[in-house]
Amino acid sequence: MAGSITVVALVVLAHPQKIPAQEPIDEIPQSSLTAEIQASPQNELFFADVLVRGQSVLEVGSLASLSADDRAQIINRRIASVLAQADSPEAVTVQFDPQREIAVLKVNNRILMTVTNQDALDFNVPIETLAEQWANRLNQAFTERPLAVDVLQRLTNTTRQLLRDTINLLPSLLGALVIILLTWIVAKGVRHAGLVWAEKTEGDRSAEILIGRLCYGGVWIIGAVIALTILGLDFATLLGTLGLTSVAIGFSLKDILSNYISGVILLAARPFRIQDQIVVGDYEGTVVQIQLRATTMRTYDGRLVYIPNQVVFQSSIINNTASPMRRSDVMVGVDYDSDLNEVKTLIEEALSSIEGIQLEPAPMVLVHELAASTINLKVRFWVDSRQQSFLQVTSTVTQAVKEKLASAQIEMPTEIYTIMLREPADSLSPLDLTPTE
């Protein structure tokens, strides 16, 4: 078929009526050949496929009073009726009516379709030749073929239909691609603008990430809606479908959606920020990244932990670095005979020489408890809240206090246990250490 030639074929599909074999072609009633040509075309589809067992056999075109799609549906219904009555129908025959300049394709004495003069003009072949070609194609399709041939034919038809649809949708596809490209450019620009604005107003990296991602995602949603509209998607139908399937989607994506919603709340509420040192459940470490789905934490021994935001949101969070300073305590036990005022003075002198202890609030030395063998004093001081500084200064204070008290000969006894014997020692019988056999 030439690229510029429009193919049109007429399908006649009234209720099948048997015609006697001896009936001459010129006696076929005009109404039985044209009864189906009563509707007006409803669209601009010029060609439609005639199907046999789901496979495209030939194409028929529209007529002045019948669209190609309606014509093909009539033919397909008649073919399906014939195949339903007999898996192997008789051969398709051609009867030509020179008075009306039409050819009739019949099988089992039933009219399948007519070939008009318009069809011949469209294909640029005589009516008799075109009718014979279509009859041969139908006869080949009616004959059962090997599985491999059938599969190959289906693949060919599917590929051809896909190619045809792609060509028809090419303008829409190009328009959608342009919209997607513009959306990508605009989304990057809006995200950058949002980040710049957040840096000037918020000063928090977590909030900057949230604002940038919301801006980026919002632009992409708008761009996707516009692109799908260009492709012809009916959003009223889509929203209706989503409404019907929202319950199933909600159950299947419950955990994922919960993580994302929890991530948005965490980024908005900001109970912690990137580089904060927090405790979440059994995990303690430094926050490395806050994403919409999970929070990444690096523990103090160098391991990365990915905690779903739903778990973080539902857990108690201890933020060790929420304030710049953190109090540390060291317990010191001295002998009951020690002068507590002297001990306090010595400890305060030891603390004054240690770098890293905050002067405000000032360190404190408190008598904590009277234990069994020692008087326990609690040394309190404030240091930088970062974990490394906290541990280093606490260790230095413990060592300095111990050395200071030891140099002043202040005893720091260990636990002492006194064993009281209620019977005199003389009354105790010696132990029998004689080995037994």
TrEMBL record:
It is a multi-pass membrane protein. Its main location: membrane. Keywords: Cell membrane, Membrane, Transmembrane, Transmembrane helix. It is found in: Cell membrane. It holds the Pfam family MS_channel_3rd. It comes from the Bacteria. The keyword Transmembrane helix applies. The keyword Coiled coil does not apply. SUPFAM superfamilies: Mechanosensitive channel protein MscS (YggB), C-terminal domain, Mechanosensitive channel protein MscS (YggB), transmembrane region, Sm-like ribonucleoproteins. The chain crosses the membrane at residues 169-190, 210-229. Residues 331-412 form the Mechanosensitive ion channel MscS C-terminal domain. InterPro entries: LSM_dom_sf, MS_channel_C, MSC_TM_helix, MscS_archaea/bacteria_type, MscS_beta-dom_sf, MscS_channel_2nd, MscS_channel_C_sf, MscS_channel_CS. Residues 255-320 form the Mechanosensitive ion channel MscS domain. Belongs to the MscS (TC 1.A.23) family. This is Mechanosensitive ion channel family protein. It comes from Synechocystis salina LEGE 00031.
